[in-house]
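Hey, can you fold this one?
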Amino acid sequence: MLTPGKNNSITDVSGVKVGQITLIEGSEVRTGVTAILPHDGNIFQDKVPAAIYVGNGFGKLAGSTQVMELGNLETPIVLTNTLNVATAVDAVVEYSLNQRGNEDVRSVNAVVGETNDGYLNDIRGRHVKNNMCWMQ
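Sure. Predicted structure:
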């Protein structure tokens, strides 16, 4: 077992950045997006070793098959609600294609996981939008 860092947080790992947006609107919208960047550079060009561990097979995890097959990560990891996984995948693909040095990239393996916030959020409203998932 490793000793926890100063904050016992993923951001204790040098270079890792985490950003998030929480959406609260009226009494129905309680959702958001979290993005995890393993480093500041072009992740597609400077892939990082990665692995997937499935602790519960009852979730959506876009991009997991390629990570398991190749053992690396080429995009930020984004977490959002169940019905916004597709929106987040689209945002991560757009983000990756727009990175300097990726002008000739023709395939991107966006890694997006979900959690079902339908018990507290108007999940069918799909309130997360593409521009909320951008890692700027």
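The mean pLDDT is 93. Let me know if you want another pass with a different chain boundary.
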